[in-house]
Write a structure and sequence with these properties.
Radius of gyration: 22 Å
Number of helices: 22
Largest sheet: 2 strands, antiparallel
Order of helices and strands: HHHHHHHHEEHHHHHHHHHHHHHH
Strand order of the largest sheet: 1-2
Oligomer: single chain
Structural class: mainly alpha
Strand content: under 5%
């Protein structure tokens, strides 16, 4: 029986085999490109490369897929910062402060903060995956439907921090998102709801066309409006700002507390089955805002907002793979693809995986850490390429984004119906945006709505109709209490501020 350090040493040796290293590098580079393109995702990139793994040694194939997974999660921040369009769902909170920073001429700083946060969070998650997988798996099994429901509710409570200046408008958009998420087949009994006999809606509205419609299309319309009102061919941004090639240690170390807290939140949320990087990023962003001395600066281009979101969503990656490699239960689509790659090579996932194939699994664990280090270095190169987008005139940038949106909406399900949905949602979102209705609450509700609904009804069924089941289990009760506190915190802070002013 090989010891832990012997297995780590073997994993390092396999990772530095030239072919394995090159496939890691290729996967990470491709992942960044895929993640930066709105409409695509880490899962999309992994699926595209899955057939290629069949003809590769198992270590090379798994390391390439790991590169795509980690690279795509960072890549999503590039379009989120430069255009306000999240390349992946997990990059949604990055848009809140990353895009305002870019419009203020701080695009390079925002991109580098996102890169450093992503690499730190990813490295933290890889260390957890490497050292604690067998132990954490036993704890993660305690997450049942009540815990997942409470966790989703906690994520929804974050809406209270992103509703903007008018809470009623923000809450209205969140409720609208929850309503849209109910379209399609009922998760419990399977009957169709609000489909109006349109078979395209049986699976509900696609997430990609709705995100592109709410976040990307209004940007295009704003650019067109800029062209026709000012006749300017200048860039949509208020100046490209100072180009940076790297950040000095003191520039990143001043965010050390945000980095540590966000990495911890990301790892914990990532381990919870079905929670994922998006919820982790939202909760981390909310915590950074809560802890800030001037929370009103969030949403206006606060660096901590970018650091918190990007650190947490990448810290959730390793956690989401814990159950997959310890007991064979994929906690995410990416984990399912990785297990599929193992099955294709004749390796059976399950509780005996680490005992029967320890060298292969530890090669992946070590490689997962190395991939995040590679993303850090090659990410600097992509930051400089992405910076060039700031110099593209609006007349070219607007149609370019439009083409990417059309391709992304169509490619998500190979359906023109999604393109029509994107256009319709885009027009409505543009009008609502002019009326100061915030879009992030709608997107967050659309992501969490199905998760909350499915786990709510499952909890009620397994408890034989006990509606207090969420408060009878320790973990779910804790999450419910934290969700309530998160929702009420803005009002508590406002009340404390009024009392402080009256006292002085």
């Amino acid at each position: 029986m090989l010891t832990f350090w012997q297995l780590v040493s073997i994993g390092l040796q396999h990772c530095f085999v030239p072919m394995n290293f090159l496939f890691m590098l290729f996967g990470a580079s491709l992942g960044i490109v895929v993640g930066a393109l709105p409409g695509l995702s880490a899962t999309t990139g992994m699926v595209l490369l899955l057939p290629l793994t069949y003809g590769l040694p198992v270590e090379a194939g798994m390391l390439m897929l790991a590169g795509v997974y980690c690279g795509a999660l960072y890549g999503g921040s590039i379009s989120a910062i430069l255009m306000g369009i999240p390349g992946t769902a997990a990059a949604l909170p990055t848009t809140f402060d990353g895009y305002p920073m870019a419009k203020k001429g701080k695009a390079s700083e925002a991109l580098l903060l996102g890169l450093y946060g992503s690499s730190f969070g990813g490295l933290a998650s890889s260390l957890v995956l490497l050292t604690l997988t067998p132990f954490i798996a036993k704890w993660a099994l305690k997450f049942g439907p009540p815990e997942i429901f409470a966790l989703g509710l906690w994520g929804m409570a974050v809406v209270s921090s992103i509703v903007g200046k008018d809470p009623l408008k923000g809450i209205f958009m969140a409720l609208l998102g929850l309503f849209i998420s109910t379209v399609g087949a009922d998760p419990l009994e399977g009957y169709n709801r609000l489909t109006f006999d349109n078979y395209y809606l049986i699976g509900g509205f696609g997430f990609v066309p709705v995100v592109l419609g709410t976040l990307a299309m209004p940007r295009v319309f704003e650019m067109i409006d800029e062209i026709y009102t000012t006749g300017s061919g200048e860039n949509f941004f208020s100046g490209s700002g100072k180009r940076k090639f790297f950040l000095y240690p003191f520039e990143i170390l001043k965010h050390w507390l945000t980095l540590l807290k966000s990495a911890l939140i990301g790892v914990i949320i990532g381990i919870a089955p079905a929670a994922g990087p998006t919820i982790a990023a939202m909760i981390s962003y909310n915590e950074a805002k809560r802890a800030c001395a001037n929370p009103d600066e969030f949403g206006q281009g606060h660096p901590d907002g970018v650091v918190a979101a990007e650190t947490a969503n990448n810290a959730a990656t390793g956690g989401s793979l814990v159950l997959a490699f310890s007991i064979g239960i994929p906690g995410s689509a990416a984990a399912a693809i990785l297990l599929g790659a193992l099955i294709m090579k004749g390796i059976q996932p399950g509780p005996m995986l680490m005992r029967n194939n320890p060298e292969t699994i530890f090669t992946f664990f070590v490689g997962f850490a190395m991939v995040n280090i590679l993303v850090f270095f090659i990410g600097h190169f992509f930051v400089q390429i992405a910076y060039s987008i700031l110099r593209i005139p609006v007349q070219i940038l607007a149609p370019l984004i439009l083409v990417i949106c059309f391709l992304g909406a169509f490619a998500s399900e190979n359906s023109m119906f999604n393109v029509y949905v994107m256009l319709a949602v885009g027009i409505v979102a543009y009008v609502l945006g002019k009326m100061s209705f915030p879009m992030p609450p709608l997107i967050l509700a659309l992501i969490l709505g199905p998760l909350i609904e499915a786990n709510y009804w499952t909890s009620i069924l397994i408890s034989y109709g006990d509606y207090f089941v969420f408060f009878k289990r320790p973990l779910s009760a804790i999450f419910m209490a934290v969700a309530l506190l998160t929702f009420l915190w803005p009002w508590i802070s406002a009340l404390r501020g009024k009392k402080a002013k009256s006292a002085t």
